[in-house]
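Ops channel
N.P.: pipeline sanity check, posting one input/output pair.
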C-alpha cells in the first residue's frame, strides 16, 4: 500500500505524468486512491487488457 501512496504523491506533485495500473493491481490501488483527500483530482482512463492510466488534474471532477 505504501508503494501506491508514493506513486499517488509523485503524480500529484508533478514528478511523474501518469500511473499505469494493471487489472491485477486495480483493487489494491483503488483502495488507497479513494482515501486520498484529493481523490476527485485523479482521472482514470481504461485501456485494453484491463490497464488503467491515472493522471492528475488541477480542477477536480464533479
Amino acid at each position: 500500500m505504501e508503494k501506491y501512496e508514493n506513486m499517488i504523491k509523485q503524480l500529484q506533485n508533478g514528478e511523474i505524468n501518469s500511473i499505469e495500473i494493471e487489472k491485477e493491481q486495480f483493487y489494491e490501488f483503488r483502495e488507497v486512491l479513494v482515501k486520498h483527500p484529493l481523490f476527485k483530482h485523479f482521472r482514470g482512463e481504461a485501456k485494453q487488457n484491463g490497464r488503467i492510466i491515472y493522471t492528475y488534474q488541477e480542477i477536480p471532477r464533479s
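N.P.: looks fine end to end. The helical segments are 2-13, 26-33.
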